[in-house]
Specification:
This protein has 147 residues and is an all-alpha fold. It has helices at residues 2-33, 43-74, 80-103, 106-124.
């Protein structure tokens, strides 16, 4: 189940990266073609900000997707850096989901929550069936009570 969860999350992350990349191109083009400034900021600066910001977001999502695919292919447990990366990505999806609910509506919100759910499921799913915490060795010696 863990492998399929990682693959599904990676596919959704790549799709989100494509959507954010296209949105960055469109928003940058619209901001560049306008004839007014926003708080004294030039339209070219707003366009570059949209391209760079959403481009970096798309690159981050693709990088997380690559890490998930490598984890699924290697069939190994996550290390600490991978867990931190997935937690950062999950928090980002939670924040983006709330913003998209306010700005875009329920379908975009549900899409972000689906990816968030897969990331959280991936964080809490054990590596192998029955690979939960194992009890330590049981001592045969009973300690004597203190007097």
């Amino acid at each position: 189940m863990r492998i399929w969860t990682a693959v599904a999350a990676a596919v959704l992350l790549v799709l989100e990266a494509l959507v954010f990349g296209v949105a960055g191109l469109v928003l940058g083009a619209v901001a560049e073609r306008q004839n007014m400034s926003f708080g004294g900021l030039a339209p070219k600066a707003m366009a570059v900000g949209a391209w760079v910001g959403l481009g970096l977001l798309a690159v981050f999502l693709v990088a997380v997707a690559v890490v998930l695919v490598l984890m699924a292919v290697r069939r190994r447990a996550m290390g600490r850096p991978t867990r931190i990366l997935l937690i950062v990505c999950a928090v980002l999806h939670g924040v983006l989901a709330t913003a998209l609910l306010a700005l875009s509506g329920v379908p975009a919100f549900v899409g972000m929550l689906l990816t968030l759910g897969l990331l959280v499921l991936l964080l809490f799913t054990p590596t192998e069936p029955g690979s939960g915490p194992t009890p330590g060795p049981v001592s045969d010696v009973v300690p004597k009570p203190a007097l």
